[in-house]
Design goal:
By secondary structure, the protein is mostly helical. The protein has eight helices and no strands.
C-alpha cells in the first residue's frame, strides 16, 4: 500500500497537475490514487482466475485501471465546476434538454448507463466484483470518447449543452457509485 502511494506521488509529480493543492491535499490524492490502483487491479480480475500484480501497470492513467476511471470522474467534476462558476444556480438534473437529437457517442453513453442496474445485479448474484470494475471502465471509456468529439461547456445549442451537462453529471454519479462499491474513493481533483 505504501509502495502504491509512492508510485502515485511519482506519477503525479511527472504530470505536474497537483501544483495548486496544499501538501495535505496532495497526500490525500496520492493515497486515493494508490489505493484505487491496487484495489481496482485486484478486483478487475475474475475471482476464479489467477493474476500477477504489476504496480506500474496498475497506476497507469490510461487503460483499464482505477486511476484511469478516477481521472474520468475528475474530468466530469471539473466540467460541472467550470460551468457552475459561470452559471450559478444551474442544475443539470432540471435542465431543459427537449428537442436534442442524440449523437452516436451520446447514445452509447446513455445505453451503457442503462446497463448499470443489470450489471449490479449480476455482480451481486455471482459474487464477482470484476463485473463492476469492467463496467466502470467501459463507461469511462465511452464518456471519454464522447468528450473528445463534443463541445460541452462551449456548446452554443442550449438543449445540446444542457443534455451534455446532464450526461456528464449522471456519468459521474454512476462511476462514483460503481467505484464506491469496489471500496475506491473518488477525488474531486487530480
Amino acid at each position: 500500500m505504501l509502495e502504491m502511494k509512492e508510485e502515485a506521488r511519482s506519477v503525479a509529480a511527472e504530470q505536474g497537475k497537483l501544483e495548486a493543492l496544499s501538501e495535505e491535499e496532495k497526500e490525500v490524492v496520492y493515497h486515493n490514487i494508490g489505493m484505487a490502483a491496487l484495489k481496482y487491479f485486484l478486483l478487475r480480475v475474475d475471482p476464479k482466475k489467477n493474476m500477477l500484480f504489476d504496480p506500474k501497470e496498475s497506476i497507469d492513467f490510461n487503460g483499464n485501471t482505477g486511476p484511469s476511471v478516477q481521472y474520468t470522474y475528475v474530468r466530469a467534476q471539473a466540467i460541472q465546476r467550470r460551468y457552475a462558476e459561470a452559471h450559478p444556480g444551474f442544475n443539470p438534473k432540471e435542465a431543459n434538454t427537449e428537442g436534442h437529437t442524440l449523437s452516436t457517442a451520446e447514445s452509447e453513453v446513455v445505453a451503457k448507463m442503462y446497463e448499470w442496474p443489470a450489471v449490479l445485479r449480476m455482480a451481486a448474484t455471482t459474487y464477482n466484483p470484476a463485473d463492476i470494475a469492467h463496467y466502470s471502465y467501459d463507461l469511462a471509456k465511452l464518456y471519454n470518447a464522447f468528450y473528445q468529439d463534443h463541445q460541452i461547456v462551449k456548446e452554443t445549442d442550449e438543449q445540446a449543452r444542457n443534455f451534455r451537462l446532464a450526461l456528464t453529471y449522471k456519468t459521474g454519479v454512476v462511476i462514483r457509485e460503481a467505484m464506491r462499491l469496489l471500496g475506491i474513493s473518488m477525488p474531486d481533483r487530480m
